């Protein structure tokens, strides 16, 4: 039963991004900023750190494809961006797996890379015409602050989950 825990958590975070967040913080024409929650990428970064690059990339590609199907008409941008972000965030050093602040910094960097990459890919293929300065001030920076705050709240529960998962796997191998 525990093997279904991780996919269920990632899927629930995906649903939380698209439903509850839009209810509690609806987009408004009165605000200049756009808040984009990326709770699943926080989970994918933690999967990459604790389970390795292979698992992180697999989850990244699956969630990215889900993003492409649900939120865009262009298939592949989020799939590539999530998979690549999972790959570059997969540090297997013991110091990273045990230190909350290293995980937080890697998550912040991954959030920045993901937003920058998706914007860049959309800009290059002509899907958006927003200048980077406008994108950075109205969407990237506010979303980065929002998701950084969410990362502060989510990293510790993910640490506990992965430590518990490792203990259960060790028990099953005995």
Automatic annotation (TrEMBL):
Keyword terms of this UniProt record: Cell membrane, Cell shape, Membrane, Transmembrane, Transmembrane helix
Domain of life the protein comes from: Bacteria
Residues spanning the membrane: 6-27, 39-63, 69-88, 100-121, 141-158
UniProt keyword Transmembrane helix, yes or no: yes
Cell compartments where the protein resides: Cell membrane
GO biological process, one term: regulation of cell shape
InterPro entries recorded: Cell_shape_determining_MreD (IPR007227)
Membrane topology category: Multi-pass membrane protein
Keyword Transmembrane belongs to the record: yes
One cellular component (GO) term of this entry: plasma membrane
Family membership: Belongs to the MreD family.
Name of this chain's protein: Rod shape-determining protein MreD
Organism: Salibacterium salarium
């Amino acid at each position: 039963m525990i093997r279904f825990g991780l996919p269920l958590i990632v899927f629930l975070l995906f649903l939380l991004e698209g439903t509850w967040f839009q209810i509690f913080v609806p987009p408004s024409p009165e605000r200049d900023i756009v808040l984009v929650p990326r709770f699943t990428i926080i989970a994918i970064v933690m999967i990459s750190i604790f389970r390795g690059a292979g698992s992180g990339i697999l989850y990244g590609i699956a969630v990215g494809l889900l993003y492409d199907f649900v939120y865009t008409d262009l298939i592949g941008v989020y799939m590539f961006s999530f998979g690549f972000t999972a790959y570059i965030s997969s540090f297997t050093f013991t110091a990273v797996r045990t230190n909350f602040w290293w995980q937080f910094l890697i998550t912040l960097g991954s959030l920045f890379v993901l937003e920058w990459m998706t914007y860049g890919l959309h800009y290059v293929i002509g899907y958006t015409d927003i200048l980077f300065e406008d994108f950075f001030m109205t969407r990237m920076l506010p979303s980065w602050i929002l998701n950084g705050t969410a990362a502060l709240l989510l990293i510790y529960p993910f640490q506990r989950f992965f430590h518990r998962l490792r203990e259960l796997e060790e028990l099953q191998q005995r």
